[in-house]
């Protein structure tokens, strides 16, 4: 175990079986999450045929994201830590909870999972273009950016409190549920304004496959800023300094 807070990682770590399993787990979990989340959005678009889906549609989208993220985190929590989100991985990185090389592997896996899920959706829906995320009417780019920062801050803070904090105890059993419920609740809050991405991979896969890039930068800058702030605050303020920190947390027990 390294005694420092941060570690770059070793090249041979990238070929270690644990690293490979963790990376694969992130790919599969992100695929499941994006396929369900974006798939629900496409299903509603087909049902409503271009008309406004209204409050019931928003609730359906929120529930689909909450349930699928709950499952995605649960099935990967003991293997990779259940990030399922490049912003969560970044928050873990700035908090000294994962090596830089492992974070790169996670990011690649998460983005590929989102892209493959979006490709399968386009194939299975008879070439419907994924919708991705966009800013709602009357919402400025600055407003959407701050909204993504605030929402992702809350998400990563929740991840730290329930899945990473060494003092979490039995609360760790509820981590997937807490994370899924948080995302579902905040989609109800921010969905009408900017879609409430809180996840660059969730935004990137549909944007690439559907080729919809309008305001796309917001869904990278906002989540990474919010995640970085949450990671710094929780890791440096909330977690006692006497608790050792590891730099290659592939399972929750390593946090």
From TrEMBL:
Keywords: Membrane, Repeat, Transmembrane, Transmembrane helix, Transport, Vacuole. CDD domains: MIP (cd00333). Coiled coil: none annotated. Signal peptide: none annotated. It is found in: Vacuole membrane. SUPFAM superfamilies: Aquaporin-like (SSF81338). One of its GO terms (cellular component) is vacuolar membrane. GO terms for molecular function: water channel activity. InterPro entries: Aquaporin-like, Aquaporin_transptr, MIP, MIP_CS. It is a multi-pass membrane protein. The chain crosses the membrane at residues 20-45, 57-79, 104-123, 144-163, 175-196, 217-239. It comes from the Eukaryota. Belongs to the MIP/aquaporin (TC 1.A.8) family. TIP (TC 1.A.8.10) subfamily. This is Tonoplast intrinsic protein.
């Amino acid at each position: 175990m390294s005694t420092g807070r941060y570690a770059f990682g070793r090249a041979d770590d990238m070929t270690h079986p644990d690293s490979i399993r963790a990376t694969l787990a992130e790919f599969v979990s992100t695929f499941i999450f994006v396929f369900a989340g974006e798939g629900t959005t496409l299903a509603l678009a087909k049902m409503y045929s271009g008309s406004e889906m209204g409050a019931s549609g928003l609730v359906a989208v929120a529930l689909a994201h909450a349930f699928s993220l709950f499952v995605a985190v649960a099935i990967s929590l003991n293997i990779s830590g259940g990030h399922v989100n490049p912003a969560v991985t970044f928050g873990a990185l700035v908090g000294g909870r994962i090596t830089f090389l492992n974070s790169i592997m996670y990011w690649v896996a998460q983005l590929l999972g989102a892209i493959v899920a979006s490709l399968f959706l386009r194939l299975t829906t008879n070439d419907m273009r994924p919708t991705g995320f966009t800013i709602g009417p009357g919402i400025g780019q600055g407003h959407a950016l701050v909204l993504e920062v605030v929402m992702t801050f809350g998400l990563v803070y929740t991840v730290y409190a329930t899945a990473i904090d060494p003092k979490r105890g039995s609360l760790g059993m509820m981590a997937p549920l807490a994370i899924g419920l948080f995302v579902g609740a905040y989609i109800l809050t921010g969905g009408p304004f900017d879609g409430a991405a809180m996840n660059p991979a969730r935004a990137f896969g549909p944007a690439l496959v559907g080729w919809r890039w309008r305001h796309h930068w917001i869904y990278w800058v906002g989540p990474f800023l919010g995640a970085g702030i949450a990671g710094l605050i929780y890791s440096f303020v909330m977690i006692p300094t006497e608790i050792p920190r590891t730099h290659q947390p592939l399972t929750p027990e390593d946090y």
